[in-house]
Fold these 4 entries.
Entry 1:
Amino acid sequence: MSKPTETERCIESLIAVFQKYSGKDGNNCQLSKTEFISFMNTELAAFTKNQKDPGVLDRMMKKLDLNSDGQLDFQEFLNLIGGLAIACHDAFLLASQKRF
Amino acid sequence: MSKPTETERCIESLIAVFQKYSGKDGNNCQLSKTEFISFMNTELAAFTKNQKDPGVLDRMMKKLDLNSDGQLDFQEFLNLIGGLAIACHDAFLLASQKRF
């Protein structure tokens, strides 16, 4: 097999990260709230450590959990990653508009 | 700054890949159809080279282009990546169910 492209590596990473955290307890195909908090505090610590409001992860989990089953499935997890990517992309565009 | 986590690297990659292909012609914040085809044939060649139907990229572009402006914005591009990740994740789950 040839070397994976950047996009293929990224798809692989998203699956691997989801499986790593969703496999910690209970249902392997879902992130429980404890697993979600563990994911956020480890993988996105740059985001969580600047949050002064202790309720922010609670509210994020509720907002992401579209079917309100108290768990995040892979689609709900991807909505989080997509939302963060869009926020970063918008911030980048804004910064480049200011610069030029 | 500390080393980025796998999730942070992935978000960064998604933005970098989108900017690389959307910057090839015209509007820098949108993938034109030519740019989309170039992205698919380069980054996801493992998928496109097995497609015998020449109309498949045409139909994918139409389906992804939610606002029908003939271009894919970053959100529409992320829907493609998300869709592919979910298909891979489902295939993986199916394969592991068969195995055990």
Entry 2:
Amino acid sequence: MKFNKVLENIQTYEAGKPIELVVREFGIAPKDVVKLASNENPIGTNPAIAKVIRSNADIAHLYPDDSMFELKAALSQKFDVNGDNIIIGAGSDQVLEFISRALLNEESSVLMSAVTFAMYEIYAKQMGAKIIRTESYAHKYDEFMEAYRKYQPKIIYLCTPNNPTGDATSREDVLKIIESVDKDTLIVVDGAYMEYAAAKDERYAVTPTDLIGYDNVIYLGTFSKAHGLGGMRVGYGIAQEKLIKELYKMRPPFNITTLSLLVAIEACKDDSFVEASIALHQEQIKRYETFAKENGISYIESYTNFITYLFDENLDSTEISDALLKRGVIIRNLASYGMNGVRITIGTEVQNDVFFRHFAEVIS
Amino acid sequence: MKFNKVLENIQTYEAGKPIELVVREFGIAPKDVVKLASNENPIGTNPAIAKVIRSNADIAHLYPDDSMFELKAALSQKFDVNGDNIIIGAGSDQVLEFISRALLNEESSVLMSAVTFAMYEIYAKQMGAKIIRTESYAHKYDEFMEAYRKYQPKIIYLCTPNNPTGDATSREDVLKIIESVDKDTLIVVDGAYMEYAAAKDERYAVTPTDLIGYDNVIYLGTFSKAHGLGGMRVGYGIAQEKLIKELYKMRPPFNITTLSLLVAIEACKDDSFVEASIALHQEQIKRYETFAKENGISYIESYTNFITYLFDENLDSTEISDALLKRGVIIRNLASYGMNGVRITIGTEVQNDVFFRHFAEVIS
């Protein structure tokens, strides 16, 4: 059978290693595994969310309301936009897929930072598009403009705060790039970790309201991180109605589960969980900064719920990640991103204690 | 912004109307709405499944094991295939999408019966492929062969039992088509409702084991129907490893939720719920057959959990569906499939009582 040519060039995404794998491969009890690899919310599941799940456990046989009327109403209110400005995805990931499929083909190129969310490249390659990257992982205006003028990309991805590096781009700089780009290029502002950046420094807060006036910009958000719903797979895109309508043509029916729909509606009502997540994070990340300084390790100033440690030639990120894995501590090795570094989700106090203990031993 | 040309030609799928819509539009209390439109399992959620959901309500923040190791092991055992022969989708729907994206382009065509599952066409159109249909809704060998020889389609869809008509194709006839088709055409055997057909007449049972020997055939199954997990969005494709590997390139990470993964594993362990679903169904469908005969309405002999009534010129399917909707009874109008008929999910005894009462009034 002859498959489409684009398949020859596609690598599949390497997900953070699951706890189940460590249990299977190294015989470590699940309770002793500390997973700081996938930027899951260390507090756990919001009790209000767990309650919604439990009370609706007996409607798993029913398809969700595919109009997502109530979730769109909740998001409309939260972000001061209309329901027609919103598309829901199985994670903001799926909205990235819709965008890629609606706009890209073998003649297009896409522009992104040197190190950024891996799915931009994978979805673009699925459409045969060419990948252009700037030199820095930071979203520098001059680098983006130079590449933009040279390649006229169909899509520019601005991941802010950036994953897996943790740095962010200020609202001013995001708007400066948007203002300098022609209307035939779509700018994707991926704010998956925006709650953390906005809480740290309001100059880094970018909101759908800042962007809805532009007809070539889409804002992406997710319930997976600050809302602690990674396992439920719900994200969203917010843009002008005309764009949303086109993306809808690539949306499969019932693209989130019945329970996912209900918990996302509940999550929109409850800001206190997000606030508690951020408070824990802000307190605990200081320990990672201090530890790095005390041990002569560089790190990238973080605007997210994780921190990226960068190693010099004396430390190897693959060796360190593998050694930690055998001890039941899962972090994300960044070697596949071309960096000698690791991304560590900021955990609970206890999880971080375990990490520091093992990490100190491994690097000594 | 210039979107891909294929978008001009895409219609979005019209999902069965949700209960929420009837509540909103007609002010009917949710408990008084009878939904027989989406082939959801009328028994409801398996209590063993509801228990799994409740006990895991507090891990909604954790991503699922993306290797789906345990679910694949359970399916391997159930169907006597290897884990490498399996790909999991958010419903078998998503596997259809992977297939379409891996194989189709603007030069290809796909072949399907005159009336069959709507997503075959939508996913094929998303890739710009041409849609070829046979004359009958039944999967007739001669009609398929004639179109196959004429158009050399890249994919042939055999939906058995067929949705939304309810008829089925025997194993003998499925294998006859497969044997007559060249290896460069993929044959998709969509067995979403197979449990019902197999229980009714074993000559209509088609299993992955029947098909795994062919390198151009894929079997699709789902947990949405007989297993009663429509709202959880889990389906699967079973084929030779080489094909599965290509489809994997189009699979997004974490494409089912954490709870969906756990309930699907549980569902593989529990045959009794499927047996009870089929028993209820077989008992209740007789009432639909009897009612039709008594009222001079034609119907298609059903091998699924629904029945299709066909109307003559004295009855109009749109008027009937609309009148029932206002009474809180949701069924599926088949006008958009070019048929003057309706598809009715076989409900519980009480649901069917309500249906017959309103339907008798509406058609009189």
Entry 3:
Amino acid sequence: MADQYKLFINGEWTDSEEKVEVLNKYTQDTYAEVAKAGEKEVDQAIEAAQTAFKTNPMPPYKRYQILKRVSELLQENKEELAKNITMEAGKPLKQARTEIDRATQTFELSAEEAKRIHGEGVPVEAAPGSENRMAFTIKVPVGVVGAISPFNFPINLVAHKIAPAIASGNAVVLKPASATPISALKLAELFEEAGLPKGFLNVVVGSGSTVGKQMMEDSRINLYTFTGSANVGLKLKQNTGLNKLILELGNNSPVIIDKEADVQMAAKNTAQKSFAFAGQVCISVQRLYVHEEVREEFQQAFIEAIQELNVGDPNDAETDVGPMISEEEAERAETWIKDAEKEGAKIIHGGKRNGALLEPTVLTNVTKNQKVVCEEIFAPVVSIIPFSNLKDCIDELNESQYGLQGGIFTQNIDTAFYAAKNVQVGGLMINDSSQYRVDLMPYGGVKGSGWGKEGPKYTIEDMTEERLVVMNLNQDV
Amino acid sequence: MADQYKLFINGEWTDSEEKVEVLNKYTQDTYAEVAKAGEKEVDQAIEAAQTAFKTNPMPPYKRYQILKRVSELLQENKEELAKNITMEAGKPLKQARTEIDRATQTFELSAEEAKRIHGEGVPVEAAPGSENRMAFTIKVPVGVVGAISPFNFPINLVAHKIAPAIASGNAVVLKPASATPISALKLAELFEEAGLPKGFLNVVVGSGSTVGKQMMEDSRINLYTFTGSANVGLKLKQNTGLNKLILELGNNSPVIIDKEADVQMAAKNTAQKSFAFAGQVCISVQRLYVHEEVREEFQQAFIEAIQELNVGDPNDAETDVGPMISEEEAERAETWIKDAEKEGAKIIHGGKRNGALLEPTVLTNVTKNQKVVCEEIFAPVVSIIPFSNLKDCIDELNESQYGLQGGIFTQNIDTAFYAAKNVQVGGLMINDSSQYRVDLMPYGGVKGSGWGKEGPKYTIEDMTEERLVVMNLNQDV
Amino acid sequence: MADQYKLFINGEWTDSEEKVEVLNKYTQDTYAEVAKAGEKEVDQAIEAAQTAFKTNPMPPYKRYQILKRVSELLQENKEELAKNITMEAGKPLKQARTEIDRATQTFELSAEEAKRIHGEGVPVEAAPGSENRMAFTIKVPVGVVGAISPFNFPINLVAHKIAPAIASGNAVVLKPASATPISALKLAELFEEAGLPKGFLNVVVGSGSTVGKQMMEDSRINLYTFTGSANVGLKLKQNTGLNKLILELGNNSPVIIDKEADVQMAAKNTAQKSFAFAGQVCISVQRLYVHEEVREEFQQAFIEAIQELNVGDPNDAETDVGPMISEEEAERAETWIKDAEKEGAKIIHGGKRNGALLEPTVLTNVTKNQKVVCEEIFAPVVSIIPFSNLKDCIDELNESQYGLQGGIFTQNIDTAFYAAKNVQVGGLMINDSSQYRVDLMPYGGVKGSGWGKEGPKYTIEDMTEERLVVMNLNQDV
Amino acid sequence: MADQYKLFINGEWTDSEEKVEVLNKYTQDTYAEVAKAGEKEVDQAIEAAQTAFKTNPMPPYKRYQILKRVSELLQENKEELAKNITMEAGKPLKQARTEIDRATQTFELSAEEAKRIHGEGVPVEAAPGSENRMAFTIKVPVGVVGAISPFNFPINLVAHKIAPAIASGNAVVLKPASATPISALKLAELFEEAGLPKGFLNVVVGSGSTVGKQMMEDSRINLYTFTGSANVGLKLKQNTGLNKLILELGNNSPVIIDKEADVQMAAKNTAQKSFAFAGQVCISVQRLYVHEEVREEFQQAFIEAIQELNVGDPNDAETDVGPMISEEEAERAETWIKDAEKEGAKIIHGGKRNGALLEPTVLTNVTKNQKVVCEEIFAPVVSIIPFSNLKDCIDELNESQYGLQGGIFTQNIDTAFYAAKNVQVGGLMINDSSQYRVDLMPYGGVKGSGWGKEGPKYTIEDMTEERLVVMNLNQDV
């Protein structure tokens, strides 16, 4: 029988009638069953969070201790947690292990940042007529954070929401992706072991259309943090009153291979970064803009590097590319490829699908209005687009509705910083692909790619309010 | 004949068929006629802004020079600008003069901040595996700013939008309040004189339901900055896609008079700050929470101080309280007062209305669900609410949907900082009323009072995007 | 036979001919013998540090790991380390335990700050003519840090020097106080266990006149960090060429008891903070300025609180006040007391000496030029000085050559912040004594009390150099 | 008869018996006579500064207004001030004009920074046991600043000292270089016109051995700021007790021409920046490290660019290179050149001297221990040093006792940032020479090049003390 999991509400493991079935994404067998949150459970979770926040504030050092302990527990349970990710997400084991290491960093950093929250002096005495004032700001938590997380990093993208939320003194209601809820529940177990007081973390499992919708409409939630599609992000913006938002949405990440690039290095790097977790990463390379002078050399080296990737069973520690999250998603991506093909695109590598497993696929001869180029494909599919003039290339790639991260490979300093100044993204990588991320850095997009930044230090800024305190002082003492 | 004004689009003064009539708010005569923007003009304005932004970026020092020049021109034209405010807004002349002085500060500060926009280093080399990286952020302008400004500070709340927008390198489309559009047009003249290149500032006059709506739906606008009601703020959030927002909305500002307050000082201060510009200030004192031990003394001193206020013709340089923006608005406020009276509230001062002129009004015996208490009254009306326990008092006043600014009068340091930590507002004034503002400070609310902060330094942060640049460096040189 | 200790040079435990004898400060018996560094050993230590720094740079995360591990080892070895402090310093055991807890914090914070060292953007493009530039700063370690530490916190004041030094990537040569060298050597053992590469920490034991002098004259040391007397601090400034300095020197800490103070609380607090470790703390209360209106009440409560202190054997876990560091030092303090007495001072508590043990002593009727007032007494001796006018009181206490920390007890916010603005110290405590310190805060004096700040974040700023990098960029790419 | 100038003490123009004769540096005729400060005048100046500081503090906005007005007056008097610099310093007129423009910036920036001085919050509540605390820092002026300025920028290096000093609320005693005192006195006139209260700026003229020495020994001066030789800097460090210091000392600036440089651009740039004001600039190019692959091309282009420089009468607006400050100095430089020649160096351009006028001189075949290489030559003399391996080149140039600024010309991003990380200087310019400076940037050296940074924002940090204020708050209110 499949493993059974309960909800985590107000410090209690809570069962419910209905269940969410979680599949082994490689075999498509049932892997586990999880209690499904109904209206009552969601309400209890929000109530618990609000009560915890209002009645039991945690001092910063205690938050530090709990989060630091969770970061240690992640390492102590690394193998088990990684295997669970591979099961419920279909993520190749070695990438799952990396995810645990990164989540460890996310918790460690959040713990440390809990001790560094502070305001700043405001020189009101420099305004005419305010010579006798003194002012500074303090940072206060927003209250209840509603977190909605995606399937692709079932631990680390949950970590990026709840660790900074706890670090800044908030209480959390978390709805993990219904495809991959178990990682979040296991994380709740670690929090319990680490001594988190009840109510500060509540995990409710269910679909966006029920649980998500209810959370969206409950005004006790003060801030929503969401990673997922631009469509859902927009809905959140429209339906959450005047509450605060952090949105990490899509991208169709561009990477430029300039004529002065180290082409071999660029080819190896981008081959790795285009297909990790079957391209289901927000900053996975999707659009490769290659200068005509080096296109042939690059294309050859790129294909060779792809051929060295191991495709198949994610449980195999050598696998680089495994299945997509579902057969439906793989079919969708296949359709986009075929649509492009009909309009003249050529598949120069891959293109075949077997169930949820789509081969690493490389297209050429694409045009800029094809979905494989202008939409987020979120699949192991990359298009090579030639260019001859860098400025024109950048103008074109900026036409995207998205702007999360991008990359450029070039040895030339002027070229590199022209790109830095002009590519409209939240992060531009020089001599690296768009897919570079370390957890301490500010991460977040512009345009349709979102609002606010992740990275514990930055998220904490968004999850606290800065209150100005001005003293009108009498010097006659 | 009334003065005639045109729109300012792409550096040209542009007429149109339809006109907006602007009244002298004290006499209710026609004061001026202004060209009304139709669909075409709004489109041209947005187009002009986008083109200016894309094709003619201004270096920081040039932005500084233009904004500094405007700040000087404000002083050179102070008397004329102040008189115009008095005419179109009904604001007492001395308060109008103060507004010009403050706008001078807003431009001066924005000019200076234009030279101080910078990113910061990001220690990516401290992440495991990233030892060879170096990273920093740069700040880039968002693009086209759509600004929608209110009637109550026709110069300075326009200044807080367009000066930081220009300072950070953006182009602006401004829709001023249709009741008071002339100040904005006069400001555009000063910009023209100061040498602003065409297209960077465009002023379109018209109603929210036409011009405002069109702006809201035009995706070429990258960021909206709005001051006004929570209702309209919410609409903007819901109808502007994933674009960025700065919202400065309402408040029903609370001020606490503690038992250890300097009661006489508190009474004089709050009497001034409850009725300035007929209470039509976002942070005007509305709820006076007075400790029972000092209530009698306070109430008497407060009424005495009100009696010293000059009420009447705003053109008189001695006037403290003039008309409200319209008779309709005065009637609305009167209705709220009467509703409260029916439920037992007592008017202990004022309460009478003559056209748009409502007397400074003080209520007691109110209850917390009456509109005069729980909604933003935006009129010269204040309620005295007694309390005996500070913590309970703060819990109660925090029930408001708003949280812009508040104040506390107390000599006790523990009491003062208990309030600072616990009153849920964007700014808490110690020994001053909620209505303290200098233009350099961060200004903005929590909860239903808005998003983002004004104050040039802070607005610039919101009007720029922080882009991360990471270099993957090879040390084998 | 007494325990034997060796020097720690280039990762090796190194013996030498001559020995330093370390006494049990309570019994004055020999407690241990430590190898004494000669000219050769000091030279080797500096050489080792320079070589480690130049040839084996540690990336930030590795520094983090080592320092975090040391902080854990401090807790694992807490009891042993505390007992050693009691032995070699005569510090009461409970204060020694507190010191280990604080050192744990110092290492933990330093570890974390190692991951947060970063520069900032510099807006050179805002200078006329520099529109095409981009600039930022990076922080680089200074190189070899020469640390000279005092006897009074044999672990934590060593920690405040070497933990930030290692955190910022420097190598260290440490000369601990010759009265208390064993704590430093034990700390070196913990570093060794934590995996510090050889050469990054070197401990050389000996007197200031030999080892200290040699360090001072060796130009391979790039920065000196010293805690001790103003005299020695001045010598360091004069004899270290143009090298950098951090100096934490003396103080005769003033605390004000205002007429609006919570007198009972103030009396208890200051009684504790005047005599901890026999007053041998840089920020020990020495001058108590008490308002005449509350003087009698304060004095009585103060004496009562002192009578509750346990005086005697530092090994006893209940002891509050133990011996001074040496009989000579106790005699010196006794002389100062007697000198004051001759000039009219009255001893209202204590005053007797038994070997190195001097009773908690309270003086009244002192004058401002007596050594007990104007010099740093560094003994369990405090003077009560009455005042009637706060401003005059502050003017008088500011006459001190020192300015490390001070305190004021008052409930009045105006009084509190008048003191904050006007008392010339590095840190002013409101409703606490001068002796408040947590390890994360900036700590350091003005005037003759020193240069630079301690607190890991702040020390790291002083132990790194900020290098500006400006790129002259060509936009024709 | 020569113009007569008086001292500026306590707001009065004060004459004295003795005079300092100021020469026209081109003709060596007497240009002016200036009152020479004796012991009495220096004492009065310091007394006046201390009294002004203690009794008449200026609020920030007033400091802003005065400094801003001085910046305007500099432009209004630009031509006169520039001509005076040319006279007393022998600086070519166009460079003198540039200096006035830069000083305008220095004052403008200082004025603006006066309004931006603020502390920051300190999260003491994150320390175990301090949960009830709240803390922040405030910045207070140091008091009396003693400024000693050099001859080479008689206006702008005075500006970098006194403008930030006034901006931060200090009072100043200035001793300008005795060769060029008139610029400083004219600046004092502008301050007077701008309304500076008496005592905040005092100018005393005289030699270092009398006036400088007296200032050094007067303990009423709280901070010394000095630009000049390393020798005098060291003396200041040794003889000013524990007072604070800002030292801007010498350099023998290195610039690297890499094999991937834009050689033509590099040659033109460095030719300009090696000989401006006859090389008497702290960051004048002195050591040109040229990669062997491009050496020939560079050398030819460099000599050609030098030949286009106009050498001669500094009063001529076309002149690029004029006389040195004195014949003695020109003779000293000539001797260094000849010494190098004797040891095998070759003069490939210039080398001849006519009075104080030394031709732009280029040496090759130098060795690293010759004075022309390892000492600061402060003359129009540059050495070309070939290299073949970049890392070795950087190791070698780092052997210098100095480290102010350096430059590298290269198009390769890895090379550029290898240099940025490894060249031991305060500022490294990529694709520009060492001589790049704008007044807003942090400017200052490492090693023997000094302590502290100039640039108004940075100097203000050094000229204020950061005081921590901690509140111990009782939540039972």
Entry 4:
Amino acid sequence: MAEKTGYTYYADPQQVDFTLRMTVPALANEVLNTAGVDAQRKGFGIDKLNKENRSWVLSRMAIEIDDRPEQYTSYEIVTWVNEYNRMLSTRNFTLHDAAGREFGRAVTQWCIIDLAVRKAIDLNTVIGPCTDTLVDAPSPTEKPRKVMGITPQHVMEHRVVYSDIDFNRHVNTMRYINMMFDMLPIEQLTAIRPVRLDIHFMHECRYGQTLTVGYEQRDGLSLFEVSNGEEAAVRAALEWR
Amino acid sequence: MAEKTGYTYYADPQQVDFTLRMTVPALANEVLNTAGVDAQRKGFGIDKLNKENRSWVLSRMAIEIDDRPEQYTSYEIVTWVNEYNRMLSTRNFTLHDAAGREFGRAVTQWCIIDLAVRKAIDLNTVIGPCTDTLVDAPSPTEKPRKVMGITPQHVMEHRVVYSDIDFNRHVNTMRYINMMFDMLPIEQLTAIRPVRLDIHFMHECRYGQTLTVGYEQRDGLSLFEVSNGEEAAVRAALEWR
């Protein structure tokens, strides 16, 4: 059995809003960076998978942010993988300020796809020999919730451009989160309030596609659905606490 | 006289395009982060200026990128301030790969504004006592060139949203660069070719404004002008070498 691993970051000026605290999308981005860097250091990163024409793809994510770090302060993201089944591997995170206090947590579920046929691979055939990387510790919060279809009250269109896409040629996760956040009132975004985001990636969105982003406010939840013109591609629910 | 200071970074998965090399906008962003962090460590950062209701504002930037770091490789950004006059302070950068080879360089010119009246302050009244932070070394390349008005061949509209704005409530420099890059053919953006970007910030663009971005291809230069509806706000020239 392995141990949890921590990575230290600084809240950069480019990651804060005018409250001089890191934005939720910037924190989610660093959580995902941590996943990439930790997998790479442990020998199962996308650099290695790409050589076999495979890649990690994020399927679902839940992130809870109770407080947002102030500009120039340091914070730590601790990560561990605690389980996997045929389709999904579960990677967990806790976020801690310089005094060690936990101010956030996340649970992410990933699959590995074969880039030639763009289909998920049975993880047992890949991770089988890597069970010594699992950590015997529970997820720090409820796993990503299923998000159902919505009845949009507001709709925004967005054409996918170069700055939206990632190393897989898909729209970058942070850009999806930004597209959703950008539809909300700025007073809500800059409030210092605990928030939980559940996001579910169903289909890829690609360069040149025109996306529609629907938004519905229902029972204290901000619900979103991104469609790529053919099908619902991403659904998310944002809960302000 | 002071010495140059170096900061080490890693090329994160979130900063690369599908060539698995860092994008030019991501490199420009880290150069600007380095400016912020270095100023803060030396005691004249925005954290200190904000207490006096002042802030650093980038006026002009020239950045040359000969090569782009591969994902997960480390690189160093070395920075120094070598001169200032009444209006502008000049901060320089060189970018080096893990073997120490220089693969890029930048020259930036900054002013300090009074946030109450949004006007530039005479730097002599601020930096006067800080001349011991100047480094006796020339700028690593030609200073930012003046970019003249353009005759746009293509125009794009963009409404300024939360994810576009920075700690000054202005559109973030990286977002301007992304808006411009996103108008170019993707084959040009993903080619591994030396490039120089000159960018000139004339007026602020703010939350809720609708911007127009004009693009003209002329004599091997990609020329851009961002207007906030009232006036030309940003001009830039991109030279592929």
